[in-house]
Amino acid sequence: MHLFYQPDAGAFPFLSEEESRHCVKTLRLTKGDSIDVTDGRGSRYKSVIETADPRRCTFRIQETTTEIPRPYRIHLAVAPTKNSDRIEWLVEKTVELGIDHLSFFVSKHSERRLLKIDRLEKIAVAAMKQSLQLFLPVIDPLLDFASVLTQPADQRFIAHLPEDGSAAPLWKSARPGGTTLVLIGPEGDFAKPELDSALSSGFSMATLGATRLRTETAALAACHTLHLINTI
Amino acid sequence: MHLFYQPDAGAFPFLSEEESRHCVKTLRLTKGDSIDVTDGRGSRYKSVIETADPRRCTFRIQETTTEIPRPYRIHLAVAPTKNSDRIEWLVEKTVELGIDHLSFFVSKHSERRLLKIDRLEKIAVAAMKQSLQLFLPVIDPLLDFASVLTQPADQRFIAHLPEDGSAAPLWKSARPGGTTLVLIGPEGDFAKPELDSALSSGFSMATLGATRLRTETAALAACHTLHLINTI
To answer: Staple partner for A198: which of A21, A23, A203, B128, CB 3.0–4.6 Å?
Structure first.
């Protein structure tokens, strides 16, 4: 079954121009074909195509079901990598694994201070559809480091391996349930003042693995680790 | 400290042309600078550059240390994706997370039946160096499905979500230690006969997450899951 995204499907039963093109041109779906449409907030609209218009494909909703959200929320805040492909991979992969909230922040050692959020949102939508999920994560615009520290969460971690190795793995320190926020630093790691202000703001240092991970790999490892902790 | 790769560093204390260029041209290292060299089998040669030749950089080994391998081995066998970027990403990321053995196989639904193994090996070397590891994984050439089933392992899993949902997560069924082999199928999933022959060859079905994962994401999830199981 093909899944399409229309945030207001209930009120406006037609697909955006992009989704219409994908549905009618790429997938060659036509009038009378069944499709699933999601609003990205947990609703699935089992529908039938009414007008297979490649610019405005309309559908008739036959059944609406709603999925209950996970009993835990994963929020990653990441210092974007210099290479934009790696940020896009990060978005695609964390959405595939399942993520609720993605923030990006400018760090002292960040080499990138601009982000194409609309491009990242498109990638998130594609990954949500591809992995057949009904929840689209919130993606924040680029924040400054201070505002990342004030993001609400039940547990807060900053991914960092101190030289004396004195940090517990996220794996052992995170508890199931609630909202877990993990900060992932830039290629050059966090600056000492950033680390200090995070610790004094109630964040705990956590390691994500035995090896030195790139930013985008660290984000994936954190996301997958939190899912496993919550499915024990 | 910069880490370089020379499989026969003990016998031949000089870098390959590619490593020499990276060392002398890119990193601008020169005579007298300290470098670490690994043979990809656990040895670290703390060395000093003798001749900063961009074609054949020689070094003098000052100290040799050997790292003990992990007490468990991760072997993933993957049906390569149609898109070669995704395979390369899979290699980079699993090496970063730490992997011992990567095999690729042709599956009934594989869209790719050719692989540039030398290119994948280059990516593995770069990822090993970047993540400061001393062990380079074995990467097999493309195998047929039958020979994948005969690969030696203490635990064997095939990543698959049956329609009746009757498969345990890898996370719950894998035990720590030994060699764990996980088969990851192609975009179109395994063909029924492949699944059947795997099951009759002693493989157990295992799921890797709650969502439908792309081949390369599944490989990463399997790799990270096995590390966590072994660090409990």
So the answer is: A203
